[in-house]
From TrEMBL:
UniProt cross-references to InterPro entries, sorted A to Z: Epimerase_deHydtase (IPR001509), NAD(P)-bd_dom_sf (IPR036291)
Protein name from the UniProt record: NAD-dependent epimerase/dehydratase family protein
Gene3D superfamilies membership: NAD(P)-binding Rossmann-like Domain
Domain of life: Bacteria
Matching Pfam families: Epimerase
SUPFAM superfamilies in the record: NAD(P)-binding Rossmann-fold domains
Similarity field: Belongs to the NAD(P)-dependent epimerase/dehydratase family.
Ranges of residues in domain NAD-dependent epimerase/dehydratase: 4-230
């Protein structure tokens, strides 16, 4: 039986869907995170859980007790600011944790490590970005991901550690405070969606189920490759906010621009189709309806 370690397992809602799908495919799941388990209680019987800061000693213990085949390194501190001090501290934690995980993977000779990066590593590009486009991140999140990617590839070079790096577009339908989730929550509270700036900034959004399917495909495909995981088209913040507003009959309101609202670049997803047999199947409108329903159910249950 293939055993998969998922870091960030108790604080990352993507892991909930991964646990369900991995176990449904006959795999054993081990979760490792530094916070209390906050999943549906029914999932506890589906996975082992280690509360850990993911330092070298604790990881060595986990790898000694569990015969890990594949590692999904989802644990990341969210870089919420572009202020130098805060972002540097968050980046430093992420890079150090990634190195610890890679060191443990190399020592245990795991079959593969899968690292979720982001298309923010490209920065502002004038043409569609492919995986070998020069990286020029404009925000600290992209800079941190770029450095972590370098370490993943370095450990492959030094220790022949197999990897797949997935560069994700903006994932929604998870518990975060990104543009879409924040506006869905506002809409459910009877408040109008908020657009920062003129709303013309473009982003590539991908629904969580499509993102999970890409991770599952990378378990057995795409070895030692970097692959963009994104939808086939970009949407403006205005378009996304209007779709959210339509669900509750509220028109978006506009506020002064924020740093986080910069446009992302257009990316090619041809490699994902060729190497993983993957493409995004859920449209933004469909995904927003699904996410709205999930948040509504969660709100009623609290």
């Amino acid at each position: 039986m293939v055993k998969v370690l998922v870091t960030g397992g108790a604080s990352n809602s993507m892991a909930v869907k991964l646990v369900e799908k991995l176990t449904a495919n006959g795999m054993k799941v081990v979760l490792a995170d530094n916070c209390e388990w906050d999943f549906d209680i029914n999932l506890k019987g589906m996975a082992s859980y280690y509360k850990t800061d993911l330092d070298k000693r604790e990881l060595a213990t986990i790898f000694k007790q569990e015969d890990i085949d594949i590692v999904l390194h989802l644990k990341q501190e969210l870089i919420t600011s572009n202020a130098m001090k805060d972002s540097f501290d968050q980046s430093e934690v992420n890079i150090a944790t990634t190195i610890n995980v890679l060191e443990a993977c190399a020592d245990a000779k795991v079959k593969k490590v899968i690292f979720p990066s982001a298309i923010s590593v490209y920065g502002n590009q004038t043409e569609e970005a492919v995986e070998d486009t020069f990286l020029d991140p404009a925000l600290f999140e992209g800079l941190s991901k770029k450095m972590e990617e370098k370490y993943v590839m370095h450990y492959h070079k030094l220790y022949s550690l197999p990897y797949t790096i997935l560069r994700f577009a903006d994932i929604y339908g998870i518990q975060n405070k990104g543009f879409i989730t924040a506006n869905l929550e506002r809409a459910l509270d009877g408040q109008a969606p908020v657009i920062y700036g003129d709303g013309k900034q473009l982003r590539n959004f991908i629904y969580i189920d499509d993102a999970v399917d890409a991770i599952l495909a990378s378990l057995t495909k795409g070895d030692n490759e970097i692959i963009n995981i994104a939808s086939q088209r970009m949407y403006s913040f205005q378009e996304a906010a209007e779709m959210i507003g339509e669900q509750v009959n509220l028109h978006p309101i506009y506020k002064d621009s924020q740093d986080e609202s910069a446009s992302s670049c257009s990316v090619s997803v041809a490699k994902a189709k060729n190497f993983l047999g993957w493409k995004a199947n859920i449209s933004l409108r469909e995904g927003l309806a699904k996410a709205m329903q999930q948040l509504s159910v969660k709100k009623l249950s609290n």
